[in-house]
Amino acid sequence: MPSRKIIIAIDGPAGAGKSTIAKRLAARLNFLYIDTGAMYRAVGLWALRTNTALDDMHRLEQLALAAQIELTDGGTGVRLNGEDITGLIRTQELSDAASKVSAVPGVRRALVEKQREMGEVQSVVMEGRDIGTNVFPNAQVKIYLDASVEVRAGRRLRDLQAKGESSTLAKVCAEIRDRDERDSTRSEAPLRQAEDAAYIDSSDLSPEAVEEAVLKVYRDRTSNGKAHGGTLQ
Topology of domain 1-31+124-233, per CATH? Predict the structure, then answer.
């Protein structure tokens, strides 16, 4: 691990492959993997369990402030208030809840503070939708990972089918377009590419190829201390 703490910020829309790549990078570099989406899903789960309306901004903020969220097993596991919820938060229902919860300014502020605290402890690979623009605007390495809606929907559909959930490509495409719209138009920290983020389109790339592309950006930006925007296809 480098002597100075490094932040690798990976942003992008749903289904772009952020989690897959972030996990691979964290394991390869021996960094902590932080899945910010899982944190919003955890708050969403707590809201659903307490019958909190997903438009009750005050109550949702209270839940986010009170939530004790721990990332375990190198960042792949999630505990909420001491309970392992890793297997409970990867459903479409929780994905939709997380999207709505994450649009609440108070929730974002509460979880961003928790995320920054995590990033102060050790070098991290953090993925989400506003890491390079809001959570860690001074991150040494910023990536905007993208893919076509059709490719992202196909990936999501395969994930759902692997979990025994049924859906159709058309339905998942519509859900992803709705998610993109909510994420990019919300008032608090909307999804957008940071000016100094390298753009990578993963539509036609294997996970191995995307990983190598990100590692190239990492090496370029940490070897000389400079940051430059760019596009890697």
Answer: Rossmann fold (3.40.50)
CA distance 130 to 111: 12
Cα–Cα dist 5/138, whole Å: 12
Residue 55, Cβ neighbours under 10 Å: how many?
A: 10
Domain ranges of the chain: 1-31+124-233, 35-121
The distance in angstroms from the start CA to the end CA of the chain is 28
Tell me how crowded residue 129 is: count the other CB atoms within 10 A of its CB.
Answer: 25
Entry pTM: 0.81
Assess contact for 43 and 107: CB atoms under 8 A: yes
pLDDT in tens, 207-218: 999 999 999 999
What is the tens place of the pLDDT at every residue in 159-196?
A: 889 988 889 999 999 999 998 998 899 888 889 999 99
- Region 35-121: CATH code: 3.40.50.300
